[in-house]
Backbone:
């Protein structure tokens, strides 16, 4: 694998950027693998990377129906944070956040992780109580989170309007996680793809999984794909919004609903916005990309669907809220919008687990907020597949919790949890 460095970048720049090599191969599928991962999003690619680097399992294929990173990984608004309420969530998301902090070095690929702070606004007494509860719970779990008054919010984020006389939903304060921020989503997929490929993992794009073949005892034997049958004794599914469809191929009905979730970006402007701001109550969140575009996200559509497009009224509602919170953006033009398909569980926490089908594992249910978990989820999902048992960090994130009622109910944190 070609090693990147500042020195090499300068040398290649002086030579007109000629001679950069391909970052991963385009292999034809082999007849069989030790492990097949369905879905080359960040989660699937990270899983393959950690199977190879942590567990020494390199006879792995990642099978992707489109192009790698073309699902939710390349469509999200890139917010990274770990201030969820329950102990199990704190363990999982903080594991991910710690991996983010060293990820560019680990992958020798700049994922542009930028811990610029994530500020979650409170607009009513319920928000205040709920966020203060989060602050206390997070601190008990060693996760940084602090309460700011409205004036302190304004100090942290100068474009924020806190003049209650001009707002439907006044800002009463906010919870700030300083270690939170953003990362470049494509780079995350590319960095993991490059690292996994260099260790022998085959990434097979434009290859849809159409069926899961099972043996006489119900165990998995491999997958039927648009490029033919590919054998494997272990299959890990990381297919986000399509998880229910893929798992139904093995006869499993998942506790998931798939909804469109959309985002939009503005024309680029000079750096004006120093952090990430989220408002769960009025359904809007915003940051500024390194290119200068304002990156704005909305809530999910009200109806289940597999379209990668959201309703126009949802975008309008979000922009109303953004203009009220940040009046200086009122005359900005939006450049483009798009949608992804998010897979929601009833308690808004993910499933990372073995399934009742021997050899079949699933990592799903990340809904509107799984980008932030990419390194951590890949790491513990690889462990679950390699050892055929969960890592301590994902032990609680089973499918059975919906049968047994042992929920990890993050719905309050996840109202628009990105
Ligand atoms: C608009 C939007 C904004 C978001 N904002 C944030 C945010 O700010 N922060 C955050 O933490 N999260 C956010 N999320 C959620 C986050 O993007 C996802 O939870 C996360 O990217 C899921 O990663 P993944 O690798 O599991 O899924 P994906 O990247 O969707 O990868 C799954 C892959 O599986 C492939 N696939 C599906 N079916 C098959 C098949 N039959 N055969 C082969 N391949 C198949 C798909 O093509 C896809 O590439 C957002 C999501 C959206 C849509």
Residues:
């Amino acid at each position: 694998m070609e090693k990147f460095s500042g020195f090499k970048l300068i040398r290649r720049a002086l030579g007109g950027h000629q001679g950069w090599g391909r970052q991963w191969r385009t292999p034809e599928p082999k007849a069989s693998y030790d492990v097949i991962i369905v879905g080359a999003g960040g989660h699937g690619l990270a899983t393959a990377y950690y199977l190879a680097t942590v567990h020494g399992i390199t006879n792995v294929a990642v099978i992707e129906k489109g192009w790698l990173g073309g699902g939710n990984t390349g469509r999200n608004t890139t917010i990274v944070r770990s201030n969820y309420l329950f102990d199990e969530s704190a363990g999982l998301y903080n594991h991910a956040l710690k991996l983010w902090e060293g990820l560019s070095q680990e992958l020798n690929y700049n994922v542009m992780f930028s811990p610029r702070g994530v500020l979650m606004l409170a607009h009513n007494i319920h928000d205040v109580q709920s966020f203060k509860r989060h602050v206390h719970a997070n601190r008990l779990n060693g996760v940084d989170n602090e309460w700011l008054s409205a004036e302190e919010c304004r100090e942290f984020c100068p474009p924020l309007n806190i003049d209650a006389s001009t707002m439907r939903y006044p800002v009463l304060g906010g919870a700030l996680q300083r270690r939170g921020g953003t990362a470049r989503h494509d780079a995350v997929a590319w960095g993991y793809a490059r690292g996994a490929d260099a260790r022998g993992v085959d990434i097979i794009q434009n290859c849809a999984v159409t069926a899961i073949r099972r043996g006489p005892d119900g165990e998995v034997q491999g997958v039927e794909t648009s490029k033919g049958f590919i054998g494997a004794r272990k299959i890990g599914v990381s297919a986000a919004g399509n998880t229910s469809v893929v798992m139904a191929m093995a006869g499993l009905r998942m506790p998931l609903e798939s909804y469109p979730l959309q985002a939009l970006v503005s024309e680029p402007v000079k750096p004006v916005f120093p952090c990430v701001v989220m408002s769960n109550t009025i359904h809007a969140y915003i940051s500024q990309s390194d290119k200068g575009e304002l990156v704005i996200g909305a809530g999910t559509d009200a109806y289940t669907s597999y379209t990668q497009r959201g309703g126009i009224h949802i975008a309008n509602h979000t922009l109303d809220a953004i203009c009220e919170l940040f009046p200086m953006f009122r005359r900005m033009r939006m450049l483009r919008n798009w949608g992804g398909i998010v897979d929601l569980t009833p308690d808004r926490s993910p499933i990372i687990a073995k399934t009742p089908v021997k050899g079949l594992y699933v990592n799903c249910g990340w809904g509107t907020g799984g980008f932030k978990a990419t390194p951590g989820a890949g790491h513990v999902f690889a462990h679950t597949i390699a050892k055929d048992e969960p890592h301590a960090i994902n032990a609680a994130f089973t499918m059975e919790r919906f049968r047994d009622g042992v929920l990890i109910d993050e719905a309050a944190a996840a109202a628009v949890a990105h």
About this structure: The mean pLDDT is 96. The first strand starts at residue 32 and ends at 38. Residues 38-44, 63-66, 70-73, 75-79, 208-209, 238-240, 242, 246, 261-263, 297, 340, 342, 366, 368-372, 418 surround flavin-adenine dinucleotide (CB under 6 Å).
